[in-house]
Each structure stands twice: as C-alpha cells, then as structure tokens.
Write a structure and sequence with these properties.
The chain is α/β, with parallel strands linked by helices and about 375 residues long. About 35% of the residues lie in helices and about 20% in strands. The protein has 14 helices and 14 strands. Strands 3-4-5-6-9-10-11-12-13-14 form a ten-stranded mixed β-sheet, with helices on one face. The longest helix has 13 residues. It is elongated.
Length: about 375
C-alpha cells in the first residue's frame, strides 16, 4: 500500500495528492500510524475503525463523533471501498449468493449460509483462480487478479448489511473464488482486520482458510503462528489421481503436503480439516476410503466429505447419498473423525466448486 507511506506526513494544502486508497485496506495499527502522521490523536483511529466495521458505515459523513475537519481529511486520502452488490440469488435452503462488482468492473461471489444456530459467510480471495482443479468451475475461469484486503473485507460488510436485526455472521470461510494462499499477504491482512476486537472481532477459531496444498505457504502460515483454522482440499488418495484432479499436486505431491501437515503446530483440541470431494466412480470407492484412512494415519485430522456439486459440462457426478454414508462409515470405523456435508445453495450455483462470475458474461451479452 504505497499511498499509506506517501500520505505521511500529509501533503500541505494545495499540494498534489495521488489517487485515494481504500481505507479498508488498512489494519488498525496501520490506521493508527496514519492518524499520528496526520497530526491526529490515536483515539481517532479507534473511532474510525469502529465506525467502519462495528457499524458498517457507507460514508465518512455517517461517523457522528468524528470532526468535520478529520472527515474532510479522510475523504481527501481515502474511500470506503468501491465494492457494490451487483446481483443476489436466494436458494430454496435459505443460502444467499452475492455477486460483488469491484471498482474495475470485475466480479466476485460470496455465499451467506444460515444454519440452525449460526450464519457462515464464504468469501472469495481472487477474481478467478490459477489452480485449474478439474472439478471446480472457478478453476475454469483462470486467474484475473488478486483481491486487496479491503475488497475481501468489503464482502463481509456488504453481506452483513443485509441481515435482519439481531442476526450476525459467526463464521468466515475462505473457500470462495480463488486460492487464499496464492494471495497470501492480502488474505493475512484481511484476517487481521476481521479478527481485530475493534473491528468485526471474529475469533480466529471462527475463521477457516482452505488451500489446495501450497506447501511453502502452509509452512509460512505455521511459522507466523497464525491461529485461524487450516483446511486442506485433498480429493485424491494417490498422486496419480490427485494430479489428474488437481495440477498443484504435480508441484507439491502428497508426501510433501502431508509432511507439512504433520509438522503444523496445533493446539490440543484442534485438528487440520481435510476436504474430500466424493465423485462417482472417481474418488468414492470404499478402497479409496481405506486408503484415505492410511494416508492420514498419525495426523490430528478430521475429514469433511463433500458430495460433488455439478457444474455445466462437468464429466463428474455425485454418488448416491447412501454410498456417501457408507464411505463415511469406513472412516469412522477406523477411528477417523469424518463429517458428511450436504452442500447448500446448489440451485443457485452457490455450492462448493460452483462459483463463477456468469453475471459478467450476461452483462457483456446484454
């Protein structure tokens, strides 16, 4: 964020001022440093940060206890995030898919999933994805660009504003469009903003970051002592099968990936989640289940089984639910914690692996 440094100290009146930056790109310590450089008391950063996230204001003018002079100063150097809701689809199961339009016209999607006791929001970290997983619609898009921290956080702000009085988002999952660890620095900055007590105040244990298996980033994440949950998209029990489904495996095969997972520091009560998509005739045999048990032996792991969510033109299909339960039973009988996730939002293409910005194509054809 070079403009943060350029703005300290503030330019004199009449001096040339560059393009404004998204104030939501700044963590609380960064905003505090900017306030100090701007000659403002430190408590102003606290006030502004709380307005941004605890009250989700749409303009600096809404910050009631902030002086007119500071509002003018903020407006000179910052904007509040040029991310707008472009479309919304509501599923029969209550899930809501949002299409967010970015300042450059690109589109990303997030999915709000209400549960019996809490609400989860699935956010995107990139426009498209470079991982090219064969079963994922986002992977078919290719990668356009990374999202900034502010663009990631704004998905939460936009979604939160749609909730009814008394409702709140409890869980954040980085499982939307993109590979979070491919946009590591911006995702970590967004994580700092989301978990700041003066911001949204999410517990790290209520945030999950899913990766396709970028081993150096997993090791970096571990070395930095990050506490948000780690999920690994596994989906294959042999290198041959996983490389066919997930090209990332050719660079970091199962041996290297699982070595990084075994060395990953975990608190006593926590485990690494391994996501495993069940594709009929491809990944769902009971022999695959037994190999999965053997593969994860000795790891503090839990497996999240996900029946495949179909997309246009995909050669893969989901197994029957009875077969999915039989696969799960093999894992449970061997002492491996395993849950079977019935995906939400399939009817609005909002389920795992289905996110893709078709809305942009519609606009171009209109």
């Amino acid at each position: 964020m070079p403009r943060l440094m350029e703005a300290a100290p503030l330019s004199a009146p009449g001096a040339e001022i560059g393009p404004r930056i998204n104030i939501r790109d700044l963590t609380f310590p960064q905003l505090t440093a900017w306030m100090k450089a701007a000659g403002e008391p430190a408590f102003r950063a606290k006030q502004v940060f709380q307005w941004l996230y605890q009250r989700q204001v749409a303009s600096f003018e809404e910050m009631a206890n902030v002086s007119k002079a500071l509002k003018a100063k903020l407006s000179l150097y910052f904007h509040l995030g040029e991310v707008e809701e472009a479309a919304r689809a509501v599923s029969q199961d209550g899930s809501v898919k949002f299409v967010h339009q970015l300042a450059d016209g690109e589109l990303v999607e997030s999915v709000l999933m209400p549960g019996e006791r809490h609400i989860t929001l699935c956010v995107s970290s990139q426009v498209g994805c470079a991982m090219k997983c064969d079963f994922c619609m986002t992977g078919k898009m290719g990668l356009t660009r990374n999202l900034t921290p502010g663009e990631i956080v704004q998905q939460v702000v936009n979604s939160w504003r749609t909730l009814e009085e008394g409702q709140f988002i409890r869980n954040i999952v980085f499982m939307g469009m993109g590979e979070p660890f491919h946009n590591y620095d911006n995702v970590m900055t967004a994580l700092d903003i989301l978990t700041d007590d003066l911001g949204f105040g999410f517990s790290n244990r209520r945030v999950t970051i899913s990766t396709s298996g970028l081993v150096p980033a997993i090791r970096r994440y571990a070395a930095e002592g990050r506490k948000a949950n780690l999920a690994i998209s596994l989906n294959g029990v042999t290198d041959e099968l996983r490389s066919q489904l997930m090209p990332v495996n050719k660079r970091w095969p199962l041996e290297k990936l699982l070595e990084a997972c075994r060395e990953f520091p975990l608190d006593t009560r926590h485990r690494i989640t391994f996501e495993y998509i069940l594709m009929k005739g491809t990944t769902d045999s009971l022999d695959h289940a037994r190999k999965l048990v053997k593969l994860l032996h000795g790891l503090k792991a839990k497996v999240n089984l996900i029946p495949f969510n179909p997309g246009p033109g995909s050669p893969y299909k989901a197994p029957e639910i009875t077969h999915c339960r039989a696969f799960q039973e093999v894992l449970l009988n061997k002492g491996l914690l395993a849950t079977l996730r019935i995906s939400r939002g399939q009817d609005i293409a909002g389920a795992c692996g289905q996110l893709t910005t078709k809305e942009k194509e519609k606009r171009q054809l209109a």
